[in-house]
Amino acid sequence: MSLDKAVERGKDTSFPPMSTALVAETNGNGNGTGSAPSNASYRLRLNPNQDHKAENYDDLGLEFTPLLFSSLERYLPPNLLNVSRDAKYKYMRDILRRYSTEGERTRDQKHREYRQKIISNYQPLYRELYTLNPSTFFVQSFSKAFSANDKNRDESIRSIMSEPAPGIYTFDMLQPRFCDMLLNEVENFEKWVHETKFRIMRPNTMNKYGAVLDDFGMESMLEKLMEDFIRHISKIFFLDVGGYSLDSHHGFVVEYGMDRDVELGFHVDDSEVTLNVCLGKHFTGGELFFRGVRCEKHVNTETHPEEIYDHAHLPGRAIIHRGRHRHGARATTSGHRLNLLLWCRSSVFRELKKHQKEFVNWCGECKREKQARLQQSVTAKKMELLVGQTDGAAFNPR
Ligand SMILES: O=C(O)CCC(=O)C(=O)O
Ligand SMILES: [Fe+2]
């Protein structure tokens, strides 16, 4: 397996792009003005109104995904929160149109039609998998950590996490029964694909096997998983790459074995935060290897010994890391390994990143360069002082 070059994964068109960045102009207090929706004065709040219950837009148009409207609604200026759904829809749609090209919109629309075709023809095996239910999905320790009240939640989340290497966290997450059901559901979906000869898109250009869960009905369940659970984890451990602002996802299952995808090359994900949970079944090999976090500029710089970490998958156990933490998967040498992946993205973080200077605090190499520059200037200053003192001594009239 080559470690020469980390591939930027997911920058292909096989799935819809992240939701468009939406940090609009705000007034001084960051809450936007919310004036009438004339073309010149569209506003969104910088911080969402967390208490607002957003409407359902499932029945409206195909131009943008309905979930996007429900998420965006919380960013509307206060005076627009309670106007008619239609007025809110038009206001948001006009903003969204300004942030995407006609080509992107056509591609998104085609993708939604593709999804719709699958969803209206595929008969799920277990309906209960399509709505998030913490008591049947998660092991007790995981559910309990999140049920603590706001004040204690961060602490109880920290208490279930191990950090085997900097920036990599592991924890028990899924019940064995849930893993089995999801494996059966994916198998059933693959069977349907085979029988109907429906041409499906694989999770990425690097995968020949596996399935996109969002494409056959699990999009809103996974969105809720991100909103109610992963965002809280991200707020604690990944504040530098978006923290709580995660607002879109790509959810899929990968499938490895000697007769499937065997291994996965060295890459970074098209995500701010990646959740990866092993579903089973029985297998050997398939370890994940990590090689440090890197920004675009440094993605191919060398690895330092302290950045080397290997992780062995265990069914039901999750690993969570920054998407830009370089990694790959070793060959699954026997049996079959299936993992659930949730790539979580933040449009706010991506928009802010565009305005960032060269240095980013989450890239191992940027940090090292900064440290080296600091060291150099300290050394130079020391030399200056020492030379200055020697010169001074030479000119000492005594
Ligand atoms: O095979 C794995 O567990 C890793 C998968 C992965 O890194 C990815 O799909 O981005
Ligand atoms: Fe990955």
UniProtKB/TrEMBL annotation:
Residues 247-346 form the Fe2OG dioxygenase domain. Residues 1-39 are annotated as: Disordered. Signal peptide: none annotated. Its cofactor is L-ascorbate. This is Fe2OG dioxygenase domain-containing protein. GO terms for molecular function: dioxygenase activity; iron ion binding; L-ascorbic acid binding; oxidoreductase activity, acting on paired donors, with incorporation or reduction of molecular oxygen. Keywords: Dioxygenase, Iron, Metal-binding, Oxidoreductase, Vitamin C. PROSITE patterns: FE2OG_OXY. InterPro entries: Oxoglu/Fe-dep_dioxygenase_dom, Pro_4_hyd_alph.
